[in-house]
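This section describes the prediction task in plain terms. A model, or a person checking by hand, is given the sequence of a single protein chain and must write out its three-dimensional structure as a string of tokens. No templates, partner chains or ligands are provided. The sample shown here is typical of the held-out split.
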Amino acid sequence: MPPRSPPAPKPGDAGRAQVLKAALLRVQGVAWTAVAKEVGASLAQVKCWPARHPKLWRKATLVAEEQLLREATAESVLTLRKQLRSDDDKTSRDAAQRLIAFRIAWRNRRPLKPRGATAGKPTTLAGRVADYLERFTDADLAALVGPTLEVRPAAGGGPPGD
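The expected answer:
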């Protein structure tokens, strides 16, 4: 068995800030070359950060994804509020229904578990979204998405692979 390479040195405060900014940019869909330019590092350096600093990169990515989701939610609510004031009755009614459904979903969400209780929790954005959606009944989801999407239980009553 070949000897293990020594762990990557931990970045200092300046390096940590670069890694955090790079992770945020990547979550936003920015290309590696643009990320490297933005954080003032070489392309090779930036591309190796996820492997050299996996814990920091993973944490930064999770924080960035959460920030992105919060911003998208705020923008969505703002758009619905603008539509609420539309002269078109159908547009206004649909916006009102979605805002009410959002409020119901927000009120019914499960309380967050205390920090440190994340063992076994999904770490990807898709996994966390799926986990979040599992909290709602089919009726809640139908009210949330409106009549444009039919919510049907999975065949067999459970998720695929059961």
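For orientation: Residues 5-9, 158-162 have pLDDT under 50 and may be disordered.
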